[in-house]
Design goal:
By secondary structure, the protein is mostly beta strands. Helix content is 9%, strand content 36%.
């Protein structure tokens, strides 16, 4: 894909969360180290967490922005080497381990010309136009869609 990263605003994952959103609000008064997976309190907390994260607000001011974001790719539509659709997440293991990240920490990437994504969690930089809209996939729900104009391997931060 051709590189147009120079014209894009580089974002961090924190930029995708409204300033007043606290993804750990449910854990403030709970010592989770004392809970087992079978504990009814843990199961109730997990259910509330999934609900909160599934409704996590996005930053609507970013809708339509030309951005660049680094993350880990999880192919959704791929031939094993070229992906035309993938999830971009902030950390390895996201979406495979539960719970998946908050809605505002999952980006659906549409790469119509294809992107070289060979393995789950390949680190990449993605440049394109961001849309602040929810999309549900079979693996996770995304709070943003990024129409990619460039996908390149991550080789460190570049501004």
């Amino acid at each position: 894909m051709p590189s147009d990263a120079g014209a894009a605003r580089t974002l961090t994952w924190d930029d995708l969360m409204p300033a007043d959103f606290d993804p750990g609000v449910l854990f403030k008064d709970v010592d989770i180290s004392k809970l087992s997976d079978n504990d009814p309190q843990a199961q109730e907390l997990f259910a509330k967490l999934r609900e909160l994260w599934n409704k996590a607000p996005v930053v609507t001011a970013l809708d339509g922005a030309h951005i660049r974001l680094a993350g880990f790719a999880i192919p959704l539509e791929s031939d094993g080497q070229i992906a035309t659709q993938f999830l971009l997440v902030p950390y390895v293991g996201a979406c495979i381990h539960v719970p998946p990240p908050p809605l505002n920490q999952t980006v659906l990437v549409e790469a119509s010309t294809g992107a070289h994504i060979q393995q789950v969690f390949d680190p990449v930089w993605v440049t394109g136009q961001l849309a602040a809209r929810r999309t549900d996939t079979q693996l996770a729900n995304a709070g943003y869609t990024l129409t990619a104009t460039d996908v390149e391997p991550y080789k460190g931060e570049r501004r």
